[in-house]
Amino acid sequence: MRSRRSCLAVPGSNPRFLEKAQGLPADEVFFDLEDSVAPQAKEGARKNIVQALRTGDWTGRTRVVRVNDLSTAWTYRDVIEVVEGAGDALDCLMLPKAEDAGHVAWLDTLLTQIEKAVGLPVGRIGIEAQIESARGLVNVDAIAAASPRLEALVFGPADFMASINMRTLVVGRQPPGYTEGDAYHYILMRILMAARMHDLQAIDGPYLQIKDLDGFTMVARRAAALGFDGKWVLHPTQIEAANEVFSPAQEDFDHAERILEAYEHATTVDRRGAVMLGDEMIDEASRKMALVVAAKGRAAGM
Ligand code: GLV
Ligand code: MG
Q1: Which end of the chain has less neighbouring CB within 10 Å, N or C?
Q2: Counting atoms of ligand 1 from 1, which one is nearest the CA of 157?
């Protein structure tokens, strides 16, 4: 699976940002044709993005383009222009406002036709689906099962909060007046369950107060603690924070490695299924938990 600890949003209408993004250490770069691009700039943005994909150096990064959502007049041309122009230099398309399985199936079919028409390997380009409405969340299981191209479910908190009439203007913070619990918990968990059921990654969306790094880190930690794989970043300062938050702490990684080693020894040499590691009783389930932490650490280069 690709690493997506930090997913950098780059507006397709801004050539300066497209240029600058090449030097940034985000795991994923996604070129936007949707909400960060004004209606009159959509056509020009498609061309900028094709050129950036063709000529930029994106080595080691996951290359994604976010097309417009299916309620607009732009989506089909977004897909056709980007994939015909730079399909071989593209890893995934991101579909915003995915509301039912049919939306994802539509994109899958269109991608297959274009791949056949231009001679690209069929099925190589993946899909990331954004869950950002009540309807999308209620249908999230069907969305997650809609195509073998799916690689990730992405929470879109700004659109989501608007769609459910949550009375807040700051994405990620608890809505004013909400004093108990976490207003985001159910949504994040629901998306995570659907993602894991279908072996997809789960990605948290943007934190819009880009100068508030503490706020970003707090929100990122909340998603990372549940098991999310990464988060959007809108500014270079958020990249490093995301890469750190979505990698395990060194001591947790080392602990996981110790559990794996001790348990391997216990089961193969001592032929026991439960043993003590220091003060801790470990068994097969401990091994599975340790595997998760170890795998995240190795993916982060530990
Ligand atoms: C992202 O697309 C969001 O709506 O938060
Ligand atoms: Mg959105």
Answers
A1: N
A2: 5
Residue 36: both structure tokens together:
């960060």
Distance 36 CA to ligand 1 centre (A): 10
State the ipTM, two decimals.
Answer: 0.99
Residue with CA at minimum distance from ligand 1 atom 3: 156
Q: Which long-range contacts (CB under 8 A, 24 or more apart) does 32-39 make?
A: 32/65, 32/66, 33/65, 33/66, 33/67, 33/68, 33/74, 33/78, 33/82, 34/66, 34/67, 34/68, 34/69, 34/96, 35/96, 35/159, 36/9, 36/11, 36/12, 37/11, 37/12, 37/13, 38/13
Measure 12 CA to ligand 2 centroid, in angstroms: 15
Does 156 sit in the ligand 1 pocket, CB within 6 Å?
yes
pLDDT digit string, tens, across residues 203-238: 999 999 999 999 999 999 999 999 999 999 999 999
* Three-state SS at 149: coil
> pTM of the full predicted structure?
0.94
Indicate whether 1 pLDDT > 80.
Answer: no
